Amino acid sequence: MLFSGGLLLCSALTTWAQAPAPATTAAPGAPATEEAPVRLEQRAYVRRVSLGISLNITPLNLFAKQNMVEKVASTPPVEFDSAVDPKSNRFGVGFTVQYALSERWAIATSPTYRKVALHAFVQRYEGVDNSSTFLDERALTQINEDTTARFMDIPVLARRYSKPRHESGKRWFLEAGSVMRLTSRVRTVNDIVPPKGDRYKTNTPLDFNKSSVGFTAGIGGQFIDDFGIRAIPEVRFTRWIDKPFDSYHGKTRANQLEVVLTFAF
Fold it and tell me: What's the total number of domains in the chain?
C-alpha cells in the first residue's frame, strides 16, 4: 500500500514538471513586447573602397616619329635637321584605388609607371651655303642621340556608374578628370662626329619638364566572376596641355589614347 502511494506521488510530480509554463499577461497600458527584426546586410557589387592592379597600353607611341628642320637665327646661322625614331615601351603598370561616394558616383586614381626611350639622328649645319655650287660649304656635325626616361602618370577621375552599387550584374561607367605626368631619370648619350677632330661622346640630358598636366575622359565597365574578382576594362583619351619633351630632339604627343585593364579586389 505504501509502495503504491509512492508511485502515485512520483507520477504527479513528473506531470507537473512537464506542463507548459503559463503565458504571461502584460500589465494594462504596458506596450506589447516584440522580437527585434533581423537586419540583413545587402551585398555591394561596387565596394565602398576597392584596390586593384592595372595594366596599361597605348596603341600609338608616346613619341611621334618625325623629321624636323629647325633654324636658329645666329651668327653664323645654325640649322638642325633631325630624324626621331621613338623606341618607347607602350606598356605601363600601376594600381587603382576607388572610393564610392554614393550609389552611382565614385572617385578613382590610378598611378601608372612607364619607361620611355627614343633615338634621334641630328645633323647640325653651321655657316652659309653657297647656292651656286654643288657642295655644301657649311660645317657639318653629326649626332646620334639616345634618350631614356621614366613617366609617372597620376589621373584623378570622377566615375558615374550605370547601376547602383548594390544592384547585381555587370555595369558601365563614364569617367573624366585631370592627370599629372611626372618625368624623371632622364638620361641622354650623344655620339658626336665633329667637322674636324676625333669622335667623342657626351652625357648631357635633354631639356624636359618635370611635370605636365592634362585632361582625361573615358568609358569603362565592371564584370565580377564567381570568386568576387572584378575585371574593369577602360578606354581613355588624354589631351596634354604641356609636354615633357618638346624640341627637335623629340616631342611627346599632345593626344594620347590608352587601354587599361584592372583586376580589383
Answer: 1
Q: Please state the pTM of the whole predicted model.
A: 0.78
CB 223 within 8 A of CB 231: yes
CA count, 13 A, side-chain hemisphere, 1 = 0
Listed in sequence order, the DSSP H helices in the chain are 2-18
Note the pLDDT tens digit of each residue in 71-85: 888 888 999 999 999
Task: Report the CATH number at residue 53.
Answer: 2.40.160.20
For 40, the grid coordinates are: 540583413
Contact 181, 240 (CB under 8 A): yes
231 occurs within a structural domain = yes
pLDDT digits (tens, 9 = 90+) for 233-253: 999 999 999 999 998 888 999
In a domain, 239, yes or no: yes
Write out the residue range of the structural domain in which residue 216 sits: 45-264
2 lies in a domain? no
The b-or-e profile of 57-91 (16+ CB within 10 A means b, else e) is ebeebbbeeeebeeeeeeeeebebbbebebebeee
Instruction: Round to whole Å and give the CA distance between 262 and 265.
Output: 10
Classify burial at 173, counting beta carbons within 10 Å of its beta carbon; exposed 0-12, middle 13-18, buried 19 or more.
Answer: buried
Contact predicate 254/242, CB 8 Å:
no
Evaluate whether residue 23 is within a structural domain: no
